[in-house]
Amino acid sequence: MIDAHAHVEFYKKNHEEIIRVAQERLRAIVDSITEYRKNHVWKSWDLLKPYFGFLLPTLGYHPNEARRGNWEKVRRVEEFIRSHTKEIYAIGEIGLDYFHAKTEKERENQRRIFEHFLELAVELDLPVVIHARDAEREAYELVQKYGVKAYFHSYTGPVDVVKEIAENGHIIGIVTGIVFIPEVREVAKVLDIESLVAETDSPYMSPYRGDRNKPWYVRVVIEELSKLKEIPESEIEKITEKNTIDFFSLPL
């Protein structure tokens, strides 16, 4: 299995143990190294670098940080991305989150910074990993405007929008929250498996109450998709792996 989206750097006290167990159970993890508050991309990069090859990194700027409009930090992250372009597989996660951005000023900050990194993705010829919450249509329209290949991770938005996203060749992440988030199950039902990848967004979105999510819990997504699609787990695993490898151009 491949976990298409996780944040292993957030396990700061036991990341080595998490990676060790994950290596026994998974083929790879795509880690979204994202600037967010005190989780600076350069610190996360140094923490995870010894495990690259199994951990396959992306670099981005989270919309909940972007709402603050700190362009000095944006420039630092951009420079870091430029200096590591050949070592990453996408720019992200980036996007829009209007659930947390309440004021028009915060939303404008998000939009401007989102577009800035979309422009960078075009320049560097990299795909993007999208975080969109309560702004799915707008995020999708900006992706289309810039003509980038996109992965909408942990999608919980409107079904009509996600159908359009998939029809235009982008992929959608089905997260371990499929066991308790009705919107995720609905997305999984209406889309063909060829448009889906399996992710945990760990340490968030745990399928088990009282337990932090783990990358190998991606098995839960495989199991639930198998039930919903009435397709054997082995086939679900094979297709979602291929979708992940193809999207990110992973050397696996």
TrEMBL record:
Q: Which residues bind a divalent metal cation 2?
A: 131, 153
- CDD domains in UniProt: TatD_DNAse (cd01310)
Give me the segments passing through the membrane.
none
Whose protein is this, by species? Pyrococcus kukulkanii
Report the protein name in the record. Answer: Deoxyribonuclease
- Pfam families in UniProt: TatD_DNase (PF01026)
Q: Where does a divalent metal cation 1 bind?
A: 5, 7, 93, 201
Q: Which UniProt keywords apply?
A: Metal-binding
**Superkingdom of this protein's organism:** Archaea
Q: Name one GO molecular function term.
A: DNA nuclease activity
